[in-house]
Amino acid sequence: MDLLRATHRFGAMTDQKEAAMDHTFLPVEAISSLWEMICFAGTLMAVAAAWLFAPR
Description:
This protein has 56 residues and is mostly helical. The chain has one domain. Helix content is 80%, strand content 0%. The protein has helices at 2-21, 28-52. The model has no long low-confidence stretch (mean pLDDT 73).
């Protein structure tokens, strides 16, 4: 029950934060999704490089 209450409190906190960020200049969601794509592409490239250059 404590976990449920904590997640509810966290959800309320993030809602307030999102409401505050609505007034910022850049869309934060677009930046975060772009950052996720960059990280994902970097991870894929690292895995591919490790697979390609692994000593056989």
